[in-house]
Amino acid sequence: MTIYFYKAQDDYGCFSNFSPHPIEIGGQTWPTVEHYYQAHKFLGTPDEPLMVRIRQAPSPEEAARLGRDRRRQPRPDWNQTKPQLMYEAVKLKFRTHLDIQQILLDTGDEELIENSPVDYFWGCGADGSGQNHLGRILMTIRSELQPPQLQHPNPTPYSNQSLPE
Ligand SMILES: Nc1c(N[C@@H]2O[C@H](COP(=O)(O)O)[C@@H](O)[C@H]2O)[nH]c(=O)[nH]c1=O
Description:
InterPro entries: NADAR (IPR012816), YbiA-like_sf (IPR037238). This protein is mainly α.
């Protein structure tokens, strides 16, 4: 059955970028993936000093508010950059925190959907037609975390193998 998530305090809230699972990158700790994502909108722009304020924001809501401030321009390549940046950050989150890694693995091959009523890129949007990139990233990471299959799917039966003379 499809698994929907959105708010960090609700079911499967650990899949939300607002969940309190810090990541460490380049010697710096980011309190949530959301802090990291919002700050990197301004990397290499005149507003780059804002990155520190976003990293130190007391909550992911505040980090998002600062990052979404329309008076500031995200980097010009942001739309091309953001999927890979999000993938790397979410992957690090689930490699760092083994308790939620297990929750992700325990979802098996169920579809994961960020049930955002407003976001048609990262989520499914109000009518379900959104691209659900966050859910897709989580499913990709889940498959990459699977232990490798030890057995070939169609092994040659032992009795049919030619034995040395
Ligand atoms: N979970 C969640 C949200 N969703 C998150 O918002 C981010 C997209 O931000 P932007 O690119 O600035 O529109 C992305 O991390 C997406 O998963 N937004 C919220 O206001 N509250 C929330 O609880």
